[in-house]
Amino acid sequence: MNEFKRVFGAAAIAALAVMGGAKGAWAQAEVEIQFYFPVAVGGKAAESLGGLVAEYAAQRPGVKVDAVYAGSYVDAMVKAITASRGGNAPQLAVLGAVNLFMLLEEDLIMPIDDLITSDAEREWLDGFYPAFMANSQAGGKTYGIPFQRSTLVMFWNKEAFKEAGLDPDRPPTTLAELVEFGKKLTKRDAAGKVTQWGMRIPSSGYQYWELQWLIGGKLPLNNADGNKTNFDDPRVIEALQYWLDLSQKHEVMASGLLDWGATPKAFFEGESAIIFTSTGNLTNVRDNAPFDFGVGFMPGVKDLGVSTGGANFYIFKGSTDEQNAAALDFVKWVSAPEQAATWTLATGYVAPRPDAWETPTLKAYAADFPPAGVSRDQLEFAVGEFMVYEQYTVQSFIDDNIEAALTGQKTPEEAMQDAQRKADRLLKKYR
Amino acid sequence: MNQPFHTSRLDRALNTIGAWVLGVLWFLPLIYAVWAAFHPQEYSARFVLLAPLTLENFAEAWAQAPFARYFLNTFLLVTLILAVQLLLCTLAAYSFARFAFRGRNLMFMLVLMQMLVMPDILIVENYRTILFLGLLDTIPAIGLPYMASGFAIFLLRQSFKTIPKELDEAARIEGANILQILWKVYVPLTKPVYVAFGLVSVSFHWNNFLWPLIVTQSVETRPLTVGLSIFFQIESPADWSLTTAASLITSAPLLIAFLIFQRQFVQSFMRAGIK
């Protein structure tokens, strides 16, 4: 037995030594901030952000920004929460705008108001499009700084419009008109098989976002405190019924679940004449559509409103004052007109401040490619995205029940009542 | 008179058909991946038999991320984990199987309990430990939580227990010490179990995503899975040709290794059935 103990004891000590000594101490000479960013629109976005960080480093030699790629929005959230709970929070992160209540519940982020010291900075904070700030504020304080923001827009196939005898430059402007246009645009072959659908509203991935438009974003799905939903409001049920009717009653859209990611492809392959998707797809459609297309406001938006989407900057708790100041400085720098213009050009996101659209870069872009300005102009009618505590869980309740209604497993009324019941049970403790 | 023969033939035919159906279902995504990766983007959802073949997707995917570095990281990671697992778990299993010591049953229960707890639940605690050890953003940090594998200890202990005590005693009479017995008797006789476990471990850690994403922060440590995730975009849709090409690049080494060693693997699994 002695031999046994000796051998095992030595092995244990050796193992501990290897683990402990693998990385030495590190020294800090300048202000260093760590910055988590998710990638939501592909490899080029990460590259362009890297370029911005490098440019910032050249201008501010005293500050080192360590940009850490953190996966999808959900992954980035998990990474930020884990690191913070583990006592190693980043100073700065770009996370989903709708994660505000989750971050507040975890007590991870700082109000930007507390970091602001001058009137000039206050003015800067007030200079963002109000629609984008809707998801940034809670309890009278501002937490999120808009960065990669978007809205839904409508893409239509001008050639299909011409073939159907419609004016290619006049898209549908109300929900009733949308059905009418859809009937003209849906084409069937001799056997009655559909060769071109009138429209496509994705129902698998971001369906709550699409539903928010159909309801009218002006009827919010959540209250301002983020602890109550109104999924069973008659107007929500009515909107879902309209959505279902498009495929079941009017037969202008394919039935079943329509994937979010495959939607642009369905458009440029001619399967659907109109699609409703994020303005983030602009570059993709521009590069791939073999026909002339239009980009416009969502039908009915002037009465209904449409919801914004995307991600904001958040400044995390637990850092030194110097680090907080550096984080704020970086955010201010990135949201300045020139940088915001670069970012918009690289990604298709909407520059979140009016002054960015005054730069020669974006002026030339919008003049050369007018669809680039559609989402920005639509902001006048935009409202905040659906946002509550326990965001992802509640989101899954509404998403799953939208799917159930669209696939005929539940009536729209049953589906929304189920979603509401589940959400109530979960959100009760935040009231 | 022909009846029994007939039934068994029908039975066999049904079995064969069933196996083929399941096999094809399993294989379809892979076939699609190969199709989309080797054809230009226009053909990624249209199946035209004579569509032009291309390697461009691979070149483009390869250029979008430092895959060579990610390959190295993943390779180092799975090798490190497997090596430490084999060492630690062999020794632990050996002591559980052949030595009587106080608290043995309790400790073995703890080992079994580890198999019941999903590692994802422990992410925050593991993160704190890694931070405390100063190992954040290193390859050992990705592997550390998995090194003392309860599954490996259990599997090896069960296998060691099936080895006749007489072999152990014979070696002892020949003058072998306990480590020599382990090395010369137990390990060679459980080789199929080692191969089977090695395959499971390597493929699991090759594909692991969440924990590596959380503890890595730089290109120098990030494994393939985390690097690959930039191809799955959220707001603008995936380019399937590029995504499938990148997926094939990252899974190719495992697929090829499996095809080459397929026979050994299958045999190992059959022999390693837990007794």
Walkthrough of the structure:
The complex is a heterodimer of chains A (431) and B (275). Chain A has 431 residues and is of the alpha/beta class. Chain A folds into two domains: 31-149 and 310-376, 3-Layer(aba) Sandwich (D-Maltodextrin-Binding Protein, domain 2), CATH 3.40.190.10; 151-308 and 385-430, Periplasmic binding protein-like II (D-Maltodextrin-Binding Protein, domain 2, 3-Layer(aba) Sandwich). Chain A contains 19 helices and twelve strands. In chain A, the strands form two sheets. In chain A, strands 1, 2, 3, 6, 7, 8, 9, 10, 11 and 12 form a ten-stranded mixed sheet that branches. A two-stranded antiparallel ribbon of chain A has the order 4-5. In chain A, strand 1 (31-37), helix 2 and strand 2 form a beta-alpha-beta unit. In chain A, helix 18 (391-406) packs antiparallel against helix 19 (412-427). The N and C termini of chain A lie far apart (62 Å). The relative contact order of chain A is 0.16. Residues 1-28 of chain A have low confidence and may be disordered. With 275 residues, chain B is mainly α. Chain B contains 13 helices and no strands. In chain B, helix 3 crosses helix 7. At the A-B interface, helix 1, strand 2, helix 3 and helix 11 of A face helix 3, helix 5 and helix 11 of B.
